[in-house]
Design brief:
Two copies of one chain form a homodimer. Chain A is mainly alpha-helical. Chain A is built from nine helices and no strands.
């Protein structure tokens, strides 16, 4: 008995099959760009990885640029936009540290982010707008968090909420790069925890309240 | 009268001329790699910029990898290794801030550094060893500085000198990337100053000493 003559298993029809194929291409591109960068990775490398011709691949994504943007959007769908909404049961610091620890399990995703982010500053890079907007959105989110903490009297005196927002993102990005080069030597979550505990004061002990 | 028949002006001899040519190639490669990354920039782009054939260029640098390492060494000769030795007239924080302000004047150098550093985490990148060693050297240098400050009682209680060393470098690298994407919105030196003033205590006021 052979399965060859069986009807196609693509019961969800051609659209679903096409969506699966797009998804496979995006995942292959993610791996290629993480390993070689966007500038160094080629559409041929991606096509080889999914076992299709470059011409077929261009049927799904008309350009390398279009493929990059699909990869970036897929990445955001896995990791979120990097800014965790406040959870009543979790403090701001806890949510950052939870995310940092999660990232340690997805080094490929971090690698892609680090390479594309730095490449985005090069001339006419298609990721430039994405990263500029991403940083602006992240800074605005953390600025709101730090402003709220300041209103609650929990930001250390003299800490500027806007610069602290930019600094937290910067520290996080920078420590990820050092961690990728030396995973044993660098404790990302501990460095973030240190910074947060420098700028955020402990919840006031209720017994000391008037 | 034509200058064509004049004797060569290379009075310093063929060696000096060759050194000049090498230097011109390194500077051209610096510009190409900063604009397109190492992965995206080609030897042909560098050759075009100095007006020589790729074959002639390979006479000076046998590979793209060799050229990259020459560019990185040249960069260090301009900016130093990023770690300023202690100057009796300048505090640790002052020397960091002086260097950060200097960097604002050489965005091309910062761009090259940011792109190559992130690219170095990709597979088999020739800059990987350079950046791994650079980070290790920088961390060791700042660790020594913070240990000295701790011995002088000038490191805030609870600050871990090794993690502070990694964090200072991370913050600096990360804020440079944000600054390159938004030079008007990001004040690199202020973010570094904020961090240093969180971990380093003011010099003790002499009048309060016993």
């Amino acid at each position: 008995m052979t399965t060859k003559a069986e009807p196609s298993r693509a019961k969800r029809g051609p659209y679903a099959k096409s969506a699966d194929r797009r998804q496979a291409i995006v995942q292959a591109a993610h791996a290629v760009f993480a390993a070689q960068g966007y500038l160094g990775g080629s559409l041929q490398d991606v096509a080889d990885r999914v076992g299709m011709s470059q011409t077929s691949l261009l049927h799904y994504f008309p350009s390398k640029r279009a493929l990059l943007l699909a990869v970036l959007n897929w990445r955001d769908s896995i990791t979120g936009d990097g800014h965790t909404p406040p959870d009543p049961d979790e403090s701001f610091s806890e949510s950052i540290l939870r995310q940092a620890r999660f990232n340690e399990n997805v080094p490929g995703v971090i690698e892609l982010y680090a390479v594309l982010c730095a490449e985005s500053i090069t001339d006419d890079h298609p990721g430039r707008e994405y990263f500029s907007e991403r940083f602006a959105t992240l800074r605005a989110g953390y600025l709101a968090d730090f402003t709220r903490l300041a209103e609650e009297g929990r930001l250390r005196d003299g800490v500027d909420p806007a610069r602290a927002a930019a600094s937290l993102i910067a520290l996080w990005d920078g420590i990820q790069t050092q961690w990728l080069l030396d995973p044993e030597g660098i404790d990302m979550a501990a460095c973030l925890r240190d910074y947060l505990s420098l700028i955020i004061l402990e919840e006031p002990d209720e017994s000391t309240l008037a």
